[in-house]
């Protein structure tokens, strides 16, 4: 026990940083013993260090809150921009079955492939936050590559307030999107429906005759055109492709 009590101050001294000059002067004067001085030094450091640690924790907490807030703003911004960004990317690369624009001259000169008939199916969906009722007027039609066709969708706003909508679309199988050309549709601009309003939305399209020459399309007999309506926000402006204004 005597050895332990003698070694404890030495261990405490080795574990603590060097004494300050004032403490060393007190030690030389003999007014305090080394043990008293060490205990005094430890008490002072604990008191002063406690405030510093609290300040550090407060700074870390503020930094964490800043990061969380910034992440929330970023995620919110991306959610608003997701629809137009997704559509721009798919239109540029015909990704995910996104349909292509039309060549006006080709529409006038293309020849119908008489011995190849395709079934075009129509699908309609709405996002979870969209309150419209949206459906195709026909479930399917028969067309041939090189032949123009007209289909209609119906949208209804059952609420008591005007609602703006934006449509995205794709084609299944995805590879057929490169041959599915729309001459007129309702997917390039915001659509506003007033309270209780119902409208018919046309889709005028054709299947490129080159569809029949693609070996990957040899066994394709059915194509599905799907539209999904989202409620538009003031910050979302869908760009209109150049061919849509010709």
Automatic annotation (TrEMBL):
Entry-linked InterPro entries: CtaG/Cox11_dom_sf, Cyt_c_oxidase_assmbl_CtaG
Organism name: Amphibalanus amphitrite (Striped barnacle)
Keyword Nucleotidyltransferase part of the UniProt annotation: no
HAMAP family the record matches: CtaG
GO CC, any one term: mitochondrial inner membrane
Name listed for the protein in its UniProt record: Cytochrome c oxidase assembly protein COX11, mitochondrial
GO MF assignments: copper ion binding
Residues passing through the membrane, by range: 64-83
Keywords on record: Membrane, Transmembrane, Transmembrane helix
Principal place of residence: mitochondrion
Subunit structure comment from the entry: Interacts with CNNM4/ACDP4. Interacts with RANBP2.
SUPFAM superfamilies for this protein: Ctag/Cox11
Pfam families per UniProt: CtaG_Cox11 (PF04442)
Membrane topology qualifier: Single-pass membrane protein
Known role: Exerts its effect at some terminal stage of cytochrome c oxidase synthesis, probably by being involved in the insertion of the copper B into subunit I.
Compartments in which it is found: Mitochondrion inner membrane
């Amino acid at each position: 026990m005597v050895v332990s009590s003698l070694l404890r101050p030495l261990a405490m001294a080795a574990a603590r940083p060097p004494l300050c000059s004032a403490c060393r002067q007190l030690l030389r004067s003999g007014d305090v013993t080394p043990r008293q001085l060490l205990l005094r030094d430890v008490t002072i450091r604990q008191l002063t260090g406690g405030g510093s640690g609290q300040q550090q924790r407060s700074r870390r907490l503020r930094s964490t809150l800043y990061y969380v807030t910034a992440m929330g703003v970023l995620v919110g911004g991306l959610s608003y921009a997701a629809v137009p960004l997704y559509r721009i990317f798919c239109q540029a690369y015909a990704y995910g079955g996104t349909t292509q624009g039309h060549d006006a001259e080709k529409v006038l000169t293309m020849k119908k492939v008489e011995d190849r008939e395709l079934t075009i199916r129509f699908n309609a969906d709405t996002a979870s936050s969209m309150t419209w009722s949206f459906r195709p007027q026909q479930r399917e039609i028969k067309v041939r590559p090189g032949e123009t066709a007209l289909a209609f969708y119906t949208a209804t706003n059952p609420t008591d307030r005007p609602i703006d909508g934006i449509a995205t679309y794709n084609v299944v199988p995805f590879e057929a999107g490169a041959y599915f050309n729309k001459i007129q549709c309702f997917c390039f601009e915001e659509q506003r429906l007033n309270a209780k309003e119902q409208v018919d939305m046309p889709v005028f399209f054709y299947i490129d005759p080159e569809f029949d020459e693609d070996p990957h399309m040899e066994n394709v007999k059915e194509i599905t055109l799907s539209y999904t309506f989202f409620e538009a926000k003031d910050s979302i402006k869908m760009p209109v492709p150049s061919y849509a204004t010709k």
